[in-house]
Specification:
Elements: E1 3-7, H1 12-23, E2 27-32, H2 40-50, E3 56-60, H3 66-74, E4 80-83, H4 97-117, E5 123-128, H5 152-171, E6 175-180, E7 183-184, H6 193-202, E8 207-210, E9 216-217, E10 220-221, H7 222-233, E11 254-259, E12 265-266, H8 267-278, E13 284-287, H9 302-308, H10 316-330
Helix pairs in contact: 1-2, 1-7, 3-4, 4-5, 6-8, 8-10
Length: about 325
């Protein structure tokens, strides 16, 4: 049995990850600041699924609260830390940049420092497919240069990868960053397209379809994301022999992986699938691309399959049906 800290435990991915760890018998300490980026009641409802487990403890604390984080880490030893808390959202970063600096930069520094000084065995942290930014070569490979982010959110996630490498190199802290690709599923976020489309269609409102529906996304079902997170958590990266590392590699105990479905789907196909699952045809407002968005995401997952033996494989048809069933049940919609 391991004792694992899961940050963002009331969030979408954090909740599902904590639940899976508890179900396999681990001790989980969850933290979250329960902020109001979206309705905190959804976060409390997620926590209500975790609190009945004897091996779960929860503390409300913000990542940027250095004293609070220090108290958390001195309260007991963590075998690993799965860091999923962050200020999320590409578009929100255009209007509220300081939230991203506080959580994603200051907060991530606090996580690194705590892991360093308290001898944590492995830090797994959420990066994002957004780091690929203006890259035009697809599928996106972890070896690609990611020097041209198109949103502040993406820039903070790339900064996290650089900061983690520094700590891996200087202090031998094993770190693994995970570039998630368009995660969706039950208990998802209300600011994401699938939730907003579902809510609008069920309430007879039109939906905004950006880039005229021609964007492609590597939609990745939440269960596949969690499977990847836990397999990576259990595989601690080791330092390499410097003589075997080429100019593009590192000898530090540091890894980056994509976790995506490896099957990009056009936005309009996602909407058509959602319409079939709900049984209602949406009224669509076709609009141009929004600032900060990219036309396509597509994950190369060869490294993930090579190192942990896993490829996400849940189809968009299966995943959306499960989401719609959950959405109706959660909102008590017949």
């Amino acid at each position: 049995m391991s004792r694992i800290l899961v940050t963002g435990a009331a969030g979408f991915i954090g909740f599902h990850t904590a639940l899976r760890l508890l179900e396999r018998g681990d001790q989980v300490v969850g933290i979250d600041n329960l902020n109001e980026y979206y309705n905190p009641q959804l976060k409390r409802d997620r926590l209500a699924q975790l609190t009945p487990h004897d091996n779960f403890q929860f503390t409300q604390v913000g990542l940027e609260d250095r004293d609070g984080m220090s108290r958390l880490f001195t309260s007991g030893t963590f075998d690993t830390v799965i860091h999923l808390a962050a200020q999320a959202g590409v578009r929100y970063s255009l209007t509220n940049p300081h939230a991203y600096v506080d959580s994603n930069l200051v907060g991530f520094t606090n996580i690194l420092e705590m892991c360093r000084h308290h001898k944590v065995g492995h830090l797994v942290y959420a990066s994002s497919s957004s780091v690929y930014g203006a890259n035009r070569s697809i599928p996106f490979r972890v070896e690609d240069r990611v020097d041209h982010p198109v949103s502040l959110y993406a820039a903070t996630k790339k900064a996290n990868e650089l900061m983690a490498h520094t700590y891996s190199h200087l202090f031998g802290l094993p770190t693994t960053g995970l570039r998630f690709f368009t995660v969706y599923g039950p208990w998802g976020r209300p600011d994401m397209a699938l939730w907003m489309f579902t809510e609008a269609i069920l309430n007879g409102r039109p939906i905004d379809v950006f880039n005229y529906g021609r964007m492609k996304r590597d939609f990745t079902y939440i269960d596949d994301i969690v499977e990847g997170v836990i397999r990576v958590n259990d595989r601690i990266p080791l330092p390499a022999d410097p003589s075997t590392v080429d100019d593009h590699g590192t000898a530090a105990p540091y890894r980056i992986y994509n976790i995506g479905n490896n099957q990009p789907v056009e936005l309009i196909h996602m909407i058509e699938t959602l319409e079939r699952c709900i049984g209602i045809t949406a009224e669509k407002r076709m609009l141009p691309m929004q600032p900060g968005d990219v036309p396509a995401t597509y994950a190369d997952i060869d490294a993930l399959q090579r190192d942990v033996g896993f490829r996400p494989d849940t189809s968009i048809e299966v995943g959306i049906e499960k989401f719609v069933d959950w959405f109706r049940n959660y909102h008590r919609i017949a």
